[in-house]
Amino acid sequence: MHTLDYLQTLAVETIDKQQYIKQPLSLYEPVDYAMRQGGKRIRPLLVLLAVDMFGCELQKAQPAAVAIETLHNFTLLHDDIMDASPLRRGKPTVYKQYSTNAAILSGDTMFAMAMAKLLESEADVTSDLAKVLSQASIDVCEGQTLDMDFERQDSVTIEQYIEMVRLKTSVLLGASLKMGAIIAKANAQDIKLLEYFGENIGIAFQIQDDILDCWSDLEAFGKVTGKDIADNKKTFLYLKALEVADLKQQKQLLDLFSAKFADQNEKIRQVIAIYESLNIREIAEKVAKNYTQQAMISLEKVSVEAEAKENLTTFATRLLGRKS
Amino acid sequence: MHTLDYLQTLAVETIDKQQYIKQPLSLYEPVDYAMRQGGKRIRPLLVLLAVDMFGCELQKAQPAAVAIETLHNFTLLHDDIMDASPLRRGKPTVYKQYSTNAAILSGDTMFAMAMAKLLESEADVTSDLAKVLSQASIDVCEGQTLDMDFERQDSVTIEQYIEMVRLKTSVLLGASLKMGAIIAKANAQDIKLLEYFGENIGIAFQIQDDILDCWSDLEAFGKVTGKDIADNKKTFLYLKALEVADLKQQKQLLDLFSAKFADQNEKIRQVIAIYESLNIREIAEKVAKNYTQQAMISLEKVSVEAEAKENLTTFATRLLGRKS
Q: What pLDDT shows up at residue A265?
């Protein structure tokens, strides 16, 4: 067992020490650029946390840790093209920095690199790990599809929204823990429980993220308060507000979210005012807390000593306790 | 051992009987559209040919056959975006029929589906097969990068061109045979020889393709004679012509390939006239024949009876003997 801080440092180092630059440069420079954007390397950390929890050697997790981070960044490269996002972590996105073609092709390569790296794992687990990674990739694509579909849909239910979040974001967190547990030769029940923990934490995290977009103490990570509202994004807050609002407020919200509205700051102010009058923040926090509790119940059932679970509990608390 | 015609039919059926349509439709309809474009299913056929050659059950090749065709079609989806190609097999390409976003995301999903399908192979070979598929995917991306780089480069050597073709096209043919041989538990030497056969046949095929663009008896597959010339594509013919031309003809060619030239038909006519004065067709046919012979020498060395090699020999002869 290692400390959470040690594992966090190891997760970052594991990714940072990888070499990406080689010929042809026009393919691998964007890969390097994408992989050097920093970040907490949450997914590699989750792989390490699961492996460590079962007392398995951390070295065995190295290929999976690199693979899941590479896969995650591949999805970001392509999502940024599809969402026409100019910035990520305050820097130009890959398609803006290089070109759309470069972002498509370097993304594809990262997907293949992720799989190739994963296959460097120990022989008796590679096939199971590869199955997790390919299924997770399919899920992420389905989640991104639903997210884009929602933009054009008139009505989206909270249930549909949660399923989109599960596929687009949470599945990779669940897969990270699942891979770690597979590497550590955990039993099928424990593997499933950790996967479920990861997925539920992921959903809680996304709802939290929706909340922070409106009520953030800090404008960190290049994030601007109310960006989701400005983008007419159908977040948990918006969908829940539509659900609980009376007809008059519903109409107000729909009008505010129509593309015609010109003054963005005024629009953001009015939407947040409606959210506040409907207690949407409290409702959302309660739902997020519920997913966190679901996650914790799964974690409790994992067949290792309570002590071995402390890192994951602390990780989840830190992740969900952030103020920005 | 089965007849080539039987295996060809089986290759087509194996792909055609797959079901692709499911939710979300906006993700899987483009997948279905892409996979239903028909074609000879050369890569699945190569998997079957290799498996059959070693007397292995054809059923075992099914996941790999589907996987390699899905992967191949994924690369076409993304290549068509990057090359801005409006048509494939006379029908709108996926990004034209749906949208660029749909083509990116459905392509990504097909890559993941290819890997997921491959992992349904028998347990003792899945890991080796997955390594072949992921390395081949990286190679194809590198090949596509070189192809796009060449468009902007002033000078490209024949050697660089052949390496681009090997990566972009031939590697997947080699990988198809390699996977078939792995499934059939062939020895390491035979696996290598078949891979080499596939790669060399692939290079011969591409040079043949370059030749057919200028001197095609039929305008089949929606192909128009001289399209490469119209697109200023640096084909084997163009690069070889530049190599053997005198200074005057070099300048003529460079002028003709500059974007300024207005009358496309006149341009095509003049370029082909230069090629013919330099015997480029004969030179290219000789080089293609040389790669074919290299392939045949590898095939001869494979440790099965001569009879078992006949299908592959016939396949290569048919592939390279086509007139359009």
A: 87
Give me the phi and psi of A126, to 5 degrees please. Answer: -55, -45
ipTM of the assembly? 0.94
Of B101, B116, B130, which has the smallest distance from its Cβ to A82's Cβ?
Answer: B101
The predicted structure's pLDDT at residue B260? 67
Distance CA B256, CA B266 (A): 10
Give CA–CA dist A175/A182, Å, rounded: 10
The predicted structure's pLDDT at residue A82: 94
Predicted confidence (pLDDT) at residue A139 exceeds the cutoff of 80 = yes
Please, what are the domains in chain B?
4-321 (1.10.600.10)
Interface of A with B (CB under 8 A): 24, 26-27, 75, 78, 81-82, 101, 104-105, 107-109, 111-113, 115-116, 119, 123, 126-127, 130-131, 133-135, 137-138, 141-142, 144-146, 148-149
- Over residues B144-154, the pLDDT tens digits come to 999 999 988 88
How many A-B residue pairs are in contact by the CB < 8 A criterion? Answer: 120
pLDDT digits over A88-106, tens only?
A: 999 999 999 999 999 999 9
Residue B296 confidence (pLDDT) above 50:
yes
Contact call for B105 and A112, based on CB within 8 A: no
What does pTM read for this prediction? 0.94
Question: Which of A24, A78, A111 is opposite residue B145, by nearest beta carbon?
Answer: A24
Q: How far apart are CA B312 and CA B292, in angstroms?
A: 12
- Look up residue B180 and give its amino acid: G
Give B273→chain A minimum CA distance, Å: 35
C-alpha–C-alpha distance, residues B182 and B180, integer Å: 5
